[in-house]
Structure formats: structure tokens, C-alpha cells
Amino acid sequence: MKTPKDHIPYITLPSFIRRVLKAYALKILIREQGCEINRIGRSRNWQLKATFEQLEQTINVIEQSEETSWHWLAVHLSKQSKNLGFNMLLTIAQKKPDITVSELMHRTDCTIAEARRVIDTLEFGENSP
Description:
This protein is mainly α.
């Protein structure tokens, strides 16, 4: 998951249209979750721009759908959403101030050291990334 300057991460979706059936319906479903999905130039690759919460919602909606060709996207998004940097973990924790270390680890699949560092930064105001 790459994070540009505006701090909203994006995920590259290689050969998006070729891998799914009913791609138009899937794009609508993704946009309904608040995500942005755009084609990268004239290539066959696409780019999904979403917050962590939007990714979680999108994965849940895709997993509940009956279209089996969409499940590769849910798996791909799940893998990518687990590669979060310190700033993204901090943003997630700031949205829920009473989050515990174990809850943060479970939700984001980060290590205990990363989770403790984020919680310490929130509690004690350390700004060391």
C-alpha cells in the first residue's frame, strides 16, 4: 500500500478488468463505499484510493457478494491493507482513542512493537516515526 502526500493510501490493481466479471457493477460497489478507483494511464492496471475503514468495508461487501470472480480483489485488498506504515497506524488509533494494543494488532495485523509504539505516541506525545 503506497501513501502519497495527501495521506490517503492507494493500491495498484493489476489487470483489474480482465480478472473480474461484471466489472462495471464492482466499480459501482467500490465507489459506494467512498473509495476512488481509476485507470492508470492507458494501461490495463487500475488504482484504488481509500482509507483503512473504507478498505475494510469494501472487503466485507465483496466477500458477501455472490460473484466469485470478485473474491481475488478481496484477497488482494486484505494483503495490501496489512502493509500499513506508522502514520497510517497512528491515524487508525487516533480515530479510536481507547484502542488497546491487542485490538490494534488484530485489526491491522501489525507487530506488538509497532502497536506499542503507536499507543505510546498517542499517550505520551512522542513524535519519533
